[in-house]
Each structure stands twice: as structure tokens, then as C-alpha cells.
Amino acid sequence: MRGHRIEGADKVTGRAPFVDDLRADALGFTPLIAMAVTAPVGRGVIQRIGAEAALAVPGVRAVVSHLNAPRMRKVVSLSMSEPGVRLPLQSPKIDYAGQVVALVVAETLAAARQGVAAVTVEFDTDAPPVVRLSDAAGRLKAVKRAGIGPGRSRKGDVDAALASAAVTIDEAVHNAAHHQNPIEPGAVIACWDEDGGLTVHAAVQWHHIDSMMIGQAFGLGWAEGLPGLLNRVLRKARPDGKVRLVNHFSGGAFGRNISYQALLLAPLAAKVASAPVKFVHTRRDTFSLLSHRSEVRQRLRLGAHADGRLAAIVLEPDIAKGAAAFVEPVGEMPMQLYAHDTHRLTTRVAGLDLPGAGWMRGPGVAYAIFALEQGMDRLAAKLGMDPLEIRLRNHADIHPVSGKPWESKALRDAYEAGAAAIGWHDRPAGGTPRPDGRLTGYGMASAIDLGRQFPATAHVTLTRDGTAIVSLAVAEMGQGLLTGLTGLIAEMAGVTPDKVDLRRQATSEGYAAGSIGSTGTYSNAAAILDALGRIARGLADRARKDRTSPLHGRAAKGARIAGERLVLTDGTGVPLRDVLERYGDQTASGRAGLTFGASPLAKASFGAVFCEMAVDPVTLDLEVVRLIGAYDCGRVLQPAIASAQLRGAMIMGLGQALMEETRLDRRSGAWTNAELGEALIPTQADVRHVQAITVGAATTDGPLDFKGIAETAIVGVAPAIASAFADATGGLIRSLPMTHAERLRAVRAAPRQTFREAAE
Length: 760
Fold this sequence. Notes:
By secondary structure, the protein is an alpha+beta fold. The chain contains 20 helices and 32 strands. Helix 10 packs across helix 11 and helix 16 crosses helix 18.
């Protein structure tokens, strides 16, 4: 099992069921095709929709707009997605460019495209949209909460600490909006059933949250929202609504496949057309109908004592917010990375005329740590210290805010491993010429992400023949969760991986945690472990009452499965297979995470990223020669999959640093590079030398001994790359991505004469 993805062969050979591949032989019907008509303006009101020409196109069955769409009920979006704020096709109001104003439903894709081209829409636009923070001064408002993180916090007297600090820095940084662009654009198939229920085929990251959203919108159960959801977790009950959400493989997600609009648009179209409907996003539609990472600008002030210890951290983020409740949680993590005397966080949010932003790998923290790590480099330069040394001086041996001890922390080991791998202590001076005439730069940064756990339930059966059957509605979006869980179940149940039957497609299963925030494997495995513990205690109780059993009369409390044995608290054990053969198949339901992993210990994953760069002194073209990340992950379950996850996240960080930016037309509010030809992402040529190293030992608190890893690995990459550029050129990067214009601005302000002349 180690290194072998259980769904890998099906994906490579084309047997894996992705939604857009589903045909009549798998579905039992041939769906109609729906395509979206979207608004070309960013603000206004629809005055008229002309559908007559579209309806005259052969094969077009319906045009759905706010004029004829069924009325939906308000939904509670626990993921803070757009449908929780505005439901699609319910109003003539235009909130952003790219908003769906109509759906054309047709028998073929060609007819649907022709129908979309034939629909005419007239708008009244009273004012231009506001889509950039630089234009939104009047919309900025201070907030106490920013998404799942704090918007405001303080520790001690920051102003006094800054005034007495030996050195201070005051920097402003900017992060451009950008999008997730996985291979699969996304598709949803909806079919209204004869019993009045609804079957939906989709790829989602959080099965029950999205089942709840669909059920609420169409009055099909789950109407009670969060209280009902928690009740189901507490009772370990299966859903009683009429939504049957079949969750398929996803060709990538990175946070966008949560409570998205197509989950409601496809059922709307199917209701109006009185037939099953498939809605497939075009690539351009994914930029407005699925989430993105917001634009953020930050002012950071740091103060340090003469020995490099931090005296104060002041962070003031301004965050763009679109048509969703989601706000980038920038303030959640920066105060948790380093030991410090005082801090202050003050966040402002601007509601802009944009699509709803949402979760994207390393939400909030990828931005915040870019600012913080740039600031740490500036402090090190002012103090004449090595960048690694100043981070070691400020290593937080306990949680800097709560004062709790860490559950486990191997950040020092990560620093050491990463530095050794790149040759940090023997590196040449910044700006040293290479044989090809380019100049060398080295940079580094720390990484952190919060350790989380979400509530989950699991239904487990151990059979006489040694099979572990686990029913769990989890999402596999390419991260290797199925393989990781299968290996864990085999380990926890004392069976071989080939004897694990993981049933993830069941639409009637109890609540499972979503594949979000590097929590899916941990949260769901904890529920499985609880169910196995219940089975173990039940078997031990049967055995202690059985006079013919070797465990007769012994205490059953605390019994557990260890390897292939049923073991009591006193160490007595018998082969698990023997007990199952004696008492038959055993089934139990488990739950975990009801306190969201609350613990007397602080939890986080850590890392250190190192970069070697080559920069052309004339053109400023750059190459990331080596990118090395060392990560504290606790016990590594599947080394090959962990390595792929870590390197994939590092590549996303490289893209964030160098090229990923979704640009906006200020006049219309539309994304101007909403296609893969212009929305640049790293290619194989950009990532030839990306290396991930794992450090750290098994964790000590909680039911399991590993950590989430996928979010942490993106966090320190952009600041490490910016640091390497500064080392090579003296140019300080203040805006991501590091476009040529930004690099040129940086070197023009650099103290090195060579680069000032080249820049001119």
C-alpha cells in the first residue's frame, strides 16, 4: 500500500468516474446540456432578457432566468460561500461581471452554445463597479472577525514597545487576486426523482455541507441548518433529506469545490426543463462561478531588541471581499509563528463588486507569512544578522499567544535539514556571478499552519473473514485521501490493506468531515478509530461473559485492537480473528472531533523553505535553481503521497510568487485573463529542482499521531523566493506576483549601482 494509490490505475486508464464522463449507461438517462449566459457588466440591473431567438434554435429546450426560475429558500452556508449570501437566478440585480443571468438548456452541446449566443440581455448600469482595493477607500470597514480568523487582537503595549525597540521596520506589501486552476473545470448532473427527491452527481470537498445547502435551497430536508447538522453528528445518524449527492472523483480542487453555484444551477435547470441536466463550466466561467483568492494589502511594522528578539508585531491588512461571506483569514497565524513581547492586529474589509472569494490552499496564512517573513529579513539586515539566525533567536518554544506547550514541534529540525540540503552556511555572497554571468541569490522563510480537527462520524463493520468495511462519505480530489485512509484502517483494524472495503459513494452515510484545511484524513480517521474502539470493547465484553473464552472474567473497559490482536488494559490479548469467528461480524458507529480538537496543547504544522536563484543582471529574468522545503509533519503515513502533496504545494507557492495573478478590467469588472493561455501557472520547466524533506516524530496528543501537511507547504515559498531575489539584486519585493515590472521597480530602488544602471 505504501506509495501505491488505490485509485491510480483507474485514473490513468480512464476508468475513474469523473462527472463529465458519465453517460447513459452509467446514469440510466441521457442528460440535457446547460450552459450559462453571463453578465458583461460588473454592476447594474437587468431590464430585459430576450430568449425568443434562443428558443427557436433547434434542440434548445429552455432558457432559465430570474423570470422563470423556481424560487429557492435561503441557505446557511457553513463554508461562507456565495449561495449563503446571494442565490443564483433569483433577482435581476447584477453584483459582478460574469454572474449567471440565464441558462440555456439544450439537447446537444452545439445547440446550447448556439442558444447562448442568441440570448440578448439589456442592462441598466448606474455606476461603474469597484473591483480593486486602490479604488475602495470608502468601502473599507474595520472588522472584529475575518473569516475563520480574528480581525482584531492585541497583546501588551505595542506603541511603547516600538518606541523602545533597537530597530524597527515599516513595510507595505500587496498580494494580487488569483484563481485555482485544476485540470477539471467542474460539472454537475441533476435529476429530479419520481419521489420528489433530487439526485446530484458532482465533485465536492465536503459532502454533507453541500447536501445540506442543496436540501435547504429546494426544501428537501436539512432545513434546520447547523443545529440539524450537529444533531446528526451527535446521534451518528444518516441524513433523512431527499437529496442524494453522489460524490465523484475531482481533477483537483484546492478549495474551490465547496458549495459552489452549479450545485443549485443544475437542479434549477432540470426543474424548468422537466428533464435531467448536465451543467459543465467553461474554463472562462470557472473564474467567476467558482471561488478565488482575494486581493490583500498589508502594512507590517516590526520592532526588535538589539539581540534580534522581537519586541512588537503590528499587522494591518486590508482585504477585498466579493459576493460571499468569506473573508481571507489573514490575521489567523502570523502571531503564532515567533516569540514576541507585544502585538496588534487591525483588519479592514472592503466589499467589492466581485464574485465570491473562497478557500484556497493556505488561506490567509500564505499572504500573512509573506509579509511577516519579508519583515524578518529586513530586521536581520538592519541588525547585521543571518536570516536563519534571527528566526532561531525568535523560535517560539511555547505558543506565543496562549502560552500552551506545543503538541509537537520540530521547526528547529526543519531549519537544520533545509539549510544542510541547500548548503546555506556555505553559500556564496549575494550577487556573486555564476559561470553564465547571472547572479546568485539565496533566501529562506518559515512556514506554519494551524492544526485542526473537524467533527466526523464513521460506520465500521469487522467481518468473520477479516474484512474491515467502512462507510464514509469522503471526497477524493487527488490528494491521496483514499489511499491514506485505507492504510490507516488496515493498521487500526489489524488487517491487510486488500481486506479494507472503503465505501465512499454511499449517499446515505452519516456525517463525514470534508477534505479541507489538511483535516480530512485526521478528522475521519479519528471517527473510524472511535468505531473500532467500540467494536473492541463490545467484543471484550462478550468474551468476559463467555465461560469458554480465554478472556472470561477480565475487565473489558479499555480494550483495543493492536495489530492483529484484541488487547485488554492488563496486556492480555487474543487473536482478533478468533474472537470474530466466535462472535460473528461486529458493527459500530464512531464519532470524533465534537470539540474541534480542543486540547491543552497547541497544535500546528511547521516548515522551513530555502531557495537558490539565478538572476540575469540586465534583463532581470530569473530562474529558481533549487527550491527545498523541510516540513514537520509528525508521522508520515504514505511517503510517496506525502512527497507529492508537499512538492505540489511548493509548486503552487512558486506560482504565487512569480506569475499567478488574475487581472481585472476596472471599467467592466471582468477578469481579463480568464483562460489558461493567459492565467499563467508553473510548468515542468519551472520546477525541475523542487525537493521536499520531512522531519519530526509522531505527535503526542489526540487520538492519532500525524499532522496535516498540504496547506503548510505553500506558506513559506513566496517569501523565500522574494528573499533570494533580494539577496541577488538588493531589490526588495513588495508585491506578488513578482512581475517584471515589480522586479524592475525593486532594483531601481536597490542600493547596488549595477542594478540601477541596468534598470535605466
